[in-house]
Each structure stands twice: as structure tokens, then as C-alpha cells.
Write a structure and sequence with these properties.
Shape: globular
Distance between the termini: 25 Å
Strand content: 15-25%
Order of helices and strands: EEEHEEHEHHHHEHEHEEHHHHEE
Largest sheet: 8 strands, mixed
Bound molecules: iron/sulfur cluster
Structural class: alpha/beta
Length: 323
């Protein structure tokens, strides 16, 4: 399976405050040396608490940010430092859908205009654009009579479908789904996930699926990465990860959600996660999770654990986990 998108040693730092000479006072390390790849037609689930850097990773991959360091390979080309002009051919192929569909849709535009917006410079005639919009509405499970309505007339799930149709208008290969279902009712979440899966099958799409909830990414992801304070702490194919969570933070995240599968529940050790994620400005020395880790030792304060392969394709960054 070949990869469509790959992050290699991705770093995204933001300056915080300025001295009189214009130098940054401090640096916020939102993403600090993160690597993973997304295969064509597959989903990579990126999980972690709010503030761990997962949204910044997503935005960097579609080059809404220019990374501080590292490579972003898109279809084999390193686009990390491409200019806006160089990015033009890639922009169409990379799209994003957002957590709050209402905030991302112009309330004064009809659904037809919202979906047609990315087609304006496509070279299609008006009739061809209208035809394409009708096909997109059908593809995401909306009805033709929805086209002349406005976003406020829809439920949250329907609005998310409008957002998905708009993202699909430019016929992308890769979509960053940034918490796309966390604002929706639980009953609607599964429907939107099913739609995303069906579209992936039909169109061969690759997704980065960003979520704070490990149980949510399980059903849609082929591979999963867990982030903590800007770093990837565990990464594995989905079945391997859910069978054998090795990093204390991954286990703590899983402990926070009810496990309907009794075997899985019995096999998972519950770890209570106390306190908030520390700030990525001046993060702790050594392992960034040590302030909240029940197993931390003196070594954890001194040495930053490398992300090591401890089983085929299963990578963990913890001094206590042996291969
Ligand atoms: Fe906990 Fe130490 Fe492992 Fe970090 S390296 S997760 S502090 S045991």
C-alpha cells in the first residue's frame, strides 16, 4: 500500500510575545517532531486531549501553516515549504471539514451556492456546475429540495453533510476531518461516520481523522496515532492498538470512555488521568507525560523517550515499554 501523505519530523512552533528587538520571548511547541504516513484510500486517526497539537498537525498537512521544520510529502513531493503559487495544484486535492459545520458555512448563502463555491474557478459552465452540485448532494445523502435552503434550516448532521459535499466539490484525494462529529448527537455521529466510510470506498479518499475520543476513531481508522503535548506517544494499526495499548497515556485515554466490549474492558487496566495537559510553552523535561504518569521514574525527568518500534508497526515512546 503506497502512502499519499507523510509527515516526517514535523515541527510547528509559534512565537509567544516579542522582545524590544523583535525576538520571540518564548516559543510554543505545538507539534514537536511528529512522523506518520497515510496510505491511499485509508484513514489515519489522530487522537489526544484538546491542546495536544492534533489540529495543528492537520492544518500543517494541508499547508494552512508552513511548518517550522520537517517534511510533508504529498504524493511523493515535499510541499512543506512550497510557496502559495507552487501549492496551487495541491490545494484542490487537499480539503478540510470542521468540527462546527454551522460556523464554517456562510449563513447567507444557500446550500447550492455553498457547495458550488469551490467550482467557480473550475472552468465548468454554470449548467455543469449545477449538475455537479446535484450529484454531490446526492452523494452525501441530502435531497435535491435541500439545495435552495439556508444552513440554519438544517440539523447538525445535515449541516455536516453540506460541509462534506463542499469539501468534495474540488474532487480531492485527501481530507482532514477535524473533530467532524464531536458537536453532533451520538445518534447522528454513526450516520456521518458511515457516510465518510462509504465516500472513501467509492472515491478512494484518504482521511486524517482528528478526534479527542479513542473509541470514536476505532471504527473509521486503519492506523491510529496518539498525541500528547505536541508529541506522538503511540502509533499502530487499529486492531493492534486496541488489542494492546502500551503507552500509559493511551491507556488513560481509553480508561476515560466506557468500553461496551466486556473482554476489552476486562483486559484494559483503568488509569485515572488527573490534571490538565501542561502548556506546550516550556514543556516538562524528559517525558512530557511524566507529571501525570503514575509510573514515572527519575529517568523520565531526564531523558525524552524515543518513539520505538516494539512490535511490527507498533511504535511507543515510553522508557518502561520494551520491544
Ligand atoms: Fe510514564 Fe516515564 Fe513512560 Fe513517560 S517514559 S510514559 S513518564 S513511564
Amino acid at each position: 500500500m503506497s502512502s499519499l501523505v507523510e509527515a516526517r519530523g514535523l515541527k510547528m512552533y509559534f512565537p509567544v510575545g516579542r522582545t524590544l528587538t523583535g525576538k520571540p520571548r518564548r516559543v510554543l511547541k505545538a507539534v514537536d517532531d511528529v512522523s506518520f504516513s497515510i496510505n491511499k484510500g485509508e484513514t489515519f486517526g489522530l487522537v489526544g486531549e484538546s491542546g495536544c497539537g492534533k489540529t495543528t498537525v492537520g492544518r500543517s498537512l494541508v499547508r494552512l501553516y508552513e511548518p517550522t521544520d520537517g517534511e510533508i510529502l504529498f504524493d511523493g513531493q515535499d510541499i512543506a515549504h512550497f510557496s502559495e503559487r507552487q501549492l496551487v495544484p495541491c490545494r484542490r486535492r487537499m480539503q478540510m471539514i470542521f468540527q462546527d459545520p454551522y460556523a464554517s458555512l456562510n449563513p447567507r448563502m444557500t446550500v447550492a451556492s455553498i457547495i458550488a463555491e469551490p467550482l467557480r474557478k473550475s472552468g465548468l459552465t454554470t449548467a455543469e456546475q449545477q449538475e455537479r452540485v446535484r450529484a454531490l448532494v446526492d452523494l452525501v445523502g441530502l435531497k435535491p429540495d435541500h439545495l435552495q435552503r439556508y444552513p440554519h434550516e438544517f440539523s447538525g448532521g445535515q449541516r455536516q453533510r453540506v460541509g462534506i459535499a463542499r469539501a468534495l466539490a474540488s474532487e480531492p484525494d485527501f481530507i482532514v476531518c477535524d473533530e467532524p462529529i464531536s458537536a453532533l448527537d451520538v445518534s447522528i455521529q454513526a450516520q456521518v461516520i458511515n457516510t465518510l466510510e462509504t465516500l472513501q470506498e467509492k472515491l478512494g479518499l484518504s482521511y486524517l481523522f482528528v478526534s479527542h475520543d479513542l473509541s470514536m476513531v476505532r471504527h473509521i481508522s486503519h492506523n491510529v496515532g496518539v498525541m500528547y503535548l505536541g508529541c506522538m506517544v503511540e502509533r499502530a494499526p487499529v486492531d493492534e492498538l486496541y488489542r494492546r495499548m502500551l503507552h500509559p497515556y493511551t491507556r488513560a485515554l481509553m480508561s476515560a470512555v466506557p468500553i461496551p466490549d466486556p473482554d476489552l474492558a476486562a483486559a484494559s487496566e483503568r488509569i485515572h488521568l488527573s490534571g490538565d495537559v501542561p502548556t506546550p510553552i516550556d514543556p516538562p523535561s524528559g517525558c512530557r507525560f511524566r507529571a501525570r504518569c503514575p509510573y514515572a521514574t527519575a529517568r523520565c525527568a531526564q531523558e525524552r523517550p524515543e518513539l520505538r518500534e516494539v512490535a511490527p508497526n507498533h511504535f511507543v515512546a515510553c522508557h518502561l515499554v520494551q520491544g
